[in-house]
Amino acid sequence: MKLALAKQYFRGLINQNHLSHAYLLTGEGHQTKAKLTQAIIQDLACPNKDESGQACLSCSICQKVKRGQFVDHYVVKPDGRSIKVEQIRQLKHWLTTSPMEANFKIASIEQADLLSTSAANALLLFLEEPGENVYLFLLANQSDELLPTIRSRTQELRVDPISMEEIVQQMVSQGLSKEHAVLMTCFSAANRHLLLADYQEETFSRYIQALDQFLAYLLAGKPRAFVWVQQGLKEFLNFKFAVCGVDYLMAVAGALLLDAYLDKTDYLKGHFQSRWEEFKQIDEKKVFDFEQSLLKCKEFLMANVTPQLAYEQLALDNQIKKS
């Protein structure tokens, strides 16, 4: 089911007071399911809904939901490679407390297919005896990884992923230029959200320009890449911009390796224009090695290595050694 249709479906259930206590939202891509859950919470909580029951999206409650600050919404995410039983116990305790901003409580379990067996069994007890005005949404790519007893106690709805064109159009409607909106799709959904939170057109332009020049130095194996970390990227040497920068560079490297399969009007080709032809002349093994160095850089960042040191090591890893 398309996202827009799914929103209408749940809005109708809310209007008729027929919303069930537990749903299983399946389908590829986390962003679509998360957006649907957000819309459901807004339609439930908004005090200024229109005649169709749609939330106004502009009141303080709607904005809190959008920012993830709505206190009557509890989110469970995997702790490492699984969702542990203690996390479900904490969730169950939270569900027994009274709501603070609304007349209901709602919880989301992301990547619910990673529930450990003990966590799934603990959750099953809640599904068998749900509280009043309590709603639970399980988000998973596929339902077959969940216990049959959990699937049988939830209503499953498969949600189609949002296309790149729809994502771009959403960002354009939020005030981004078309060029910046398509470049934003280079970033993962989570990192894109971080960049959009405090997006400023001039800052984002400088950021992309600095990354583009860094990329050119890296792919050419020039020592100048090391110096550029301090000179050209100095403004962006914090964790958020550094991690997002690796996303961007990975997207370009992946596009180079898949160049033969890309459409002539692909947005990255259009962005780099004549420079893309220069990039294409680079040996495929060099591009593959570049990808591996980016993965190493990301590991450094996740291990709390400072962005400057991680990027400087990236520059050294790609520098052509003189014989």
Q: According to CATH, what is the topology of the largest domain? A: Rossmann fold
Query: Into which percentage range does the β-strand content fall?
Result: 5-15%
Q: What's the alpha carbon Rg, rounded to whole Å?
A: 23 Å
CATH class label of the largest domain: Alpha Beta
Question: What's the main sheet like?
Answer: 5 strands, parallel
User: What strand order characterises the main sheet?
Assistant: 2-3-4-1-5
How many discrete structural domains? 2
Overall mean confidence score, pLDDT: 89
Shape: elongated
Helix content: 55-70%
CATH homology group of the largest domain: P-loop containing nucleotide triphosphate hydrolases
Number of H/I helices = 16
Quaternary structure type: single chain
Poorly predicted spans: none
Q: Cα distance, first to last residue?
A: 59 Å
Structural class: alpha/beta
